Amino acid sequence: MPLKTFALRPLIAAGAVACGLIAPTWAQTPPPAPSQPVTETLHGVTLVDPYRNLETRSPETLAWMRAQAAYASQTLDAIPVRQPLLQRIEQLARTTGDAVGPVLRMPGERYYYLQRKAGENQFKLVLRSGLGGAEQVLVDPQALARAAGGTPHAINYFMPSWDGRYVAYGISVGGSENATLYVLDTTTGHTVGEPIPRVVEEGVSWMPDNQRFAYNQLRELPPGTPDTETYLDSTVFLQTVGQKAAQARPLFGPTVNRDLKLDRLDVAQVIFSPDSGYMVARTTDTTSPEGKLFAAPLAALSAPAIDWQRIAGPEDKITDIALRGNELVVRTYQGAPRGKLLAVPLDNQAQAQARTLVPEPATGVLEGFELEKDAVLTEERSSFTLRAVRYDAQGRHDIAPAVPGSTLINGNPAHLGGDTLVGTSSWTAPQRLLQVDAHGGTRDTGLRNQQAPASVPEIVAEEVMVPSHDGVMVPLAILHRKDLKKDGQAPTLLIGYGAYGLSEEAHFLPRNFAWFERGGVIAIANVRGSGAFGDPWHRAGFKATKPNTWKDGIAAAKYLVAQGYTHPKRLGIWGTSAGGIFVGRAVTEAPDLFAAAIFDVGSLDTVRSENSANGVTNISEFGTVQDPEDFKSLLAMSTYQHIEKGVAYPAVLLIHGMNDPRVDTWESAKTAAKLQVSTSSGKPVLLRLDEQAGHGIGSTAQQAYTKQADLMAFLLWQFGLAGSQP
Predict the structure, then answer these.
(1) Rounded CA gap, 585 and 602, in Å?
(2) Which residues form the Peptidase S9 prolyl oligopeptidase catalytic domain (predicted)?
């Protein structure tokens, strides 16, 4: 699965960890790491790894991690501005309203969404029947956490049956994302059937009969099995509500359909639609969406074995699909770098019969789409801004022309018609969910009700194009107070990601005012590796071209200095997950450009990462050390391998959850250990860990607030601002 967390917005509030590994004694310096060096030669290159031993959770390693976490916690707690920042962040969260996540509209005007009310600690699953109806809490993870002694529980995914009688949902513990699948009967409020473990992937799909559903389950591995086996040979099962888990029918997968010659990493989903007599199986490696597609009639379920017919493979470059009637609608960039939609007839599966449903946009990037009975809705990107567009018998037109940025809601899976729901997308105003009529008229549904904070400075957003090292222009959004003086003194944080073709979009986070109130600037770069300009932009920061990702970041940093926003002594850089490559390599290539850096659940030792469970799934994005050319790319993007003795590195705060399934904690641990003995700057290198967190998904509000306060306090301390020095 991609290293990036689907729920995160990599601004200051993104992710969530709190220092849970606290030792009782004060440490004056970070404890030195135990070192058992390993030397190996790969494709003619000799590498020395001084901290290979930290990849195992031996008692010695865990003791060192606990001591490091204690040192980081005590150091951060001693920063004078930390507690005031935490109090302000908590106040902003309480007073700006409820947080609402994905909204799913189903037939009968039923709205399902994740909601965390102001003052609460975790998102609950809520149902509202009609926009004017009362809210009904279906699943409350906070109650589950209380019953488990306070261990955080989270909803990873949910999918209601077409008639609304049942809701399938996944619950994981401690940020692990190792979800167990449950089915709730909404008429009784009770779960039915047995819990189904190891249903990690989203993609539960209900059959038209509302009694059977398909899900992908990982194998139960015996003790001692290598982590790299975790996602291999998974199976899609078909389950009847109330049926014992052992009675579920194996429906699709590498060990089920050996005649299809699937790869062991073909992790599948089988989808249904209430208006279709077909079912479609889609495989990915959980990271690259360009997998394989197969179809079969629903009637084939009555046979002992299903005759799946292959529709497409990775070479067809299909990244998204939806089933409507007897045709499959696919988004592809085959011959269309910015994306187009094709309709593939399932009763004549030769793809030569596919027709173009939506052509490649003349400008912008076709990113997402939804189907209505007689129309297609798309999201089209222009830099940081998305726009919802309708294609119907009258042609192409904006759904909400008066809305500066508009996104489609997650949903309309039953091809609803009538009014359209769009979300707003803005840097400077809270999100709204709007109902748009056929004439473009809008009204606020009230489902998203956050308010801008009161009595705060006015914020403006500038979007500029910055020349990179090779002259290519890179999008950069700069958020700051309207009264900012460009005297080079503003505390500034540069944020980037740049992987999987995922792009940053305009969005608003009230808690960032704790930074803006102190004169802070936030800059977000859509560096290469993202999808800001379609597939070519992704491929321009991919494997051999990956250096463009961090070089674009360095160019953005130099621009912020040259334009008078800040100075290297007051410039920080932050990367999350795969963004660890962005931040880590920018810091190791241009250490004098930054005062501080945040490595947040970062991918930092790419030469070794494929030896982890999720590293295998990311070979398609980053490469494998088994291939000589890929190895060169992985070595180039490895922060750990580019840390050199005696270099004056900026201050570094490494953040990680101990239950992270996407990037193993040892990547941060090894990097911290090597930086601490290598840097000559005398600046701190802190390793901040949490036993009850993972990659960010499922972390509680309080964990997020604490992390944000630590992060901001650390930056202000290293920028040397008055009142921030211990």
Answers:
(1) 11
(2) 511-720
